[in-house]
Each structure stands twice: as C-alpha cells, then as structure tokens.
Amino acid sequence: MLPFLFRRITGAVITLVLLSAVTFFVFFSVGDPALMACGKNCTADNVALIHQNLGLDKPVPEQYWDFIVGIFAGRDFTLGHCDAPCFGYSFATKQDVWATMMDRLPTTASLALGGAIAFLVIGLGAGLLAAWKKGSFLDKAVTGASMVLSSVQIYILGPVVLGIFVYSGMMASPKYVDFTKDPAGWFMGLLLPWLVMSTIFTAQYTRMSRSTMIEQLQEEHVRTAKAKGMSASYVFLRYAWRGSLIPIVTILGIDLSSLFGGAMITEFTFQLAGLGRLAINSVQTLDLPMIMGVLVFSAALILVFNIIVDATYALIDPRVRLS
Q1: Closest listed residue to residue 203, CA positions, set 118, 135, 285, 266
Q2: To which H or E segment does residue 282 belong?
Q3: Element housing 154 (H / E)
Q4: Residues 76-99 pLDDT 10s
Q5: What residues form DSSP beta bridges with 81?
Q6: 247: in domain
Q7: CA pair distance 104, 175, nearest whole angstrom
Q8: Rounded to whole angstroms, how far apart are CA atoms 281 and 283?
Q9: Which of 95, 146, 154, 272 has the fewest beta carbons under 10 Å from its own?
C-alpha cells in the first residue's frame, strides 16, 4: 500500500507543479499585470511603482519561483508581510488572497457537503429501489425521471425555484449562516441551493446505482447466496449492494473535489459568496493573483480527493495496487 500511495502522491505533486507553472506563465507573460492592477486612471509612474511593489520587474521564471517559495515560506510585499501559505495580494481589493479564500471556503464546503448528502440519499435510494423492482412501473418511472432531470441545467432550474419559493415570499433568500452560531439558519439558508445543485448529480447516481446493482445481482456469489436459501432482501443488501458501491465511491471522490473547488454556477445563481463566485468575480476583474490562488487551491483539492479515492479503491480491490 505504501508504494502505491507514494506513486499517487508523487504524481499529484508533479501535476500540481506543472499546472501552476503553465498557468502562471500564461497569465503573467501575456500582457502586463501591472496595468490590470493599476486601474483606469493609470500613469507610467504608477505602473513602475506597481512593478516594484509586486515584484513584476523581475523575469517571469524568477517571479514564479518567488510565488512557489511564498506558498511554503511567505513573502514580503510593500503592502506588508504575507504569511505562508502566501498567494500574494489581490489586485482588486489589496487583501491577502489566502485569507480571502479561507473566508469563502466555509460557504463552498457547506454547499458541497449538504449537496452531496442530498444527491447520495436520493440518488442511491432511487437507484436501488429501481433495481429491486426491475422491469416494473416504478423502475420505468425512476429511470425516466432521472433522464429528464439530468438534462435540466442549474442556471435554468435555479431561477425557477427562486421565483416559486423566494420571490413569492414562501422562503427567505438563500444565504450562508455560520453553522456553529445558528444550525437551523444554516440549514434553511442553503436548503434550496442543495436541492437544485443535487438535481443533476441525483440523476447520475440513480442511473449508476441501478445499473451497478443489476450487474451485481448477476454475479456468481450473489446467485450462490440465493441458492443457499438466504432471503432476497438479505442478499440484496449484504452482497449485491456492497459490491455496487465500488464505482460509486470513485465517482463520488471526483464530484466532491469539484464541488469543494467551487460550485460556480450554483453560487452565482443563488448569490452565495463561495470560492466559485470568487473565481468568477476574479476573472471579470482580471484579478490574476486571486485567479491563481483559487485555481491552485482547487486543483490541490481535486488531487487530494483523487488520492483518497485511489487509496479507498485499493483497499477494496488489491488488484488496483498493481496498476
């Protein structure tokens, strides 16, 4: 297991370094970042001062090295010392990029965890029920509903849900509330975003759990358990259901990593101040340090979740360790 994890972690580190390098060189080589940081009323003296303050007067490779060193050891700017992990200061707000991301992370994490629970409970439950009643009207209804829901986009469903529940006065506008201060307010404030965001995922997990469960029911060990006289419900839950979870665990890790990296469309639709909306606003204002920070942080989350999934999968199936 240790060599397996070592290979995965080494590959993840190399991937993250290459991704950050390519992104940095593209962002800071095309155009002058100082002009973006300077604003509309900008003079040559202001541009020169920004170059000096942000270290933009150095060669791009040296700037990238300072960026990497700052993540692990911190950096000194004219705006002040930036403690590690340092991703620099925002061009738009002059705030510490890392502090800004950590301020937005609880919203994104709450949205991701709540949405994941919603689509797992509903999706897996509906998929297992459809597999249990394969060929019945219920099976066809669940399958048809999942096909319809998978084609409904969040940016269409979100405004419809807001119009029905929020603009009519039935519910308050979605917002993030600190869970430790008001658990009920936290739940009600994110309930609509959870349900809307989980719609597409629910349809995906419904179809996946149904198909994998049907495959598992055809396996020899399941048929053997039935032949020994075990009840259908016991065989369904004890043998088939556990085997069907392997591909679902893999997909879940990928989905969670993308959600923790920022559910952009959901946050933008419901005006939630998370990492996804921060990324959109940074692109609109050409705030390169903030874009780099969100991109590297999101990529690191995706790689971490992938390693966790690989390790979990390797524990379930030892053959994976040899690949």
Answers
A1: 118
A2: helix 275-284
A3: helix 154-161
A4: 877 678 888 999 888 778 889 999
A5: 76
A6: yes
A7: 13
A8: 5
A9: 95
Question: What pLDDT is stored for residue 183 in this prediction?
Answer: 92
The owner of tokens 């869970």 is: 179
Q: What does pTM read for this prediction? A: 0.81
Tell me which residue has tokens 């949405």: 115
Tokens of 280: 């959109």
Structure tokens belonging to residue 118 = 């919603």
Cβ burial, residue 21 (10 Å; 0-12/13-18/19+): middle
For 115, phi and psi rounded to 5 degrees?
Answer: -65, -40
Residue with tokens 């190399």: 14
Question: Is pLDDT of 318 > 60?
Answer: no
Name the residue with tokens 């966790």: 308
User: Which H or E element spans position 87?
Assistant: none
Has residue 260 been placed in a domain? yes
Q: Is residue 95 part of a domain?
A: no
Domain of 173, CATH number, reads 1.10.3720.10
Quick one: CA dihedral 153, 201, 20, 18, positive or negative? Answer: negative
Nearest alpha-carbon partner for 126 in 146, 150, 147: 146
Give me the domain span that covers residue 195: 104-287
Domain-located, residue 83: no
When pLDDT is averaged across residues 164-189 and rounded to a whole number, the result is 91
Count the domains in the chain.
1
Residue 47's contacts (CB-CB under 8 Å, 6 or more residues apart) are 32, 34, 35, 38
> For residue 313, what are its two tokens?
């999968």
Please list, in sequence order, all residues whose beta carbon lies within 8 angstroms of the beta carbon of residue 120, skipping any fewer than 6 positions away.
Answer: 205, 252
Say how far apart CA 188 and CA 219 lie, in whole Å.
Answer: 43
CA angle 239, 243, 247 (to 5 degrees): 165
